[in-house]
Design brief:
The chain is mostly helical. The protein has a domain of 25 residues. Helices cover 80% and strands 0% of the residues. The protein is built from two helices and no strands. The radius of gyration is 15 Å and the shape is flat. The relative contact order is 0.07. The mean pLDDT is 93.
Length: 54
């Protein structure tokens, strides 16, 4: 089953808006982008380790 173009474009738009909101919120509370990026990297690593099925 293929994804329709409007649905695909809407998903891209939502991802861009979520990223912008995250950067804006981090900036408004005084967090640096390095801290936000490190937290995202650690969160992704934890999610990867929790998803391992052996």
């Amino acid at each position: 089953m293929k994804m329709s173009l409007p649905h695909f474009l809407a998903l891209i738009l939502v991802a861009i808006l979520a990223a912008g909101l995250t950067v804006w919120l981090a900036h408004s509370v005084g967090l640096s982008l390095a801290i936000v990026g490190s937290a995202a990297l650690i969160g992704a690593a934890i999610a990867r380790l929790m998803a391992r099925v052996e």
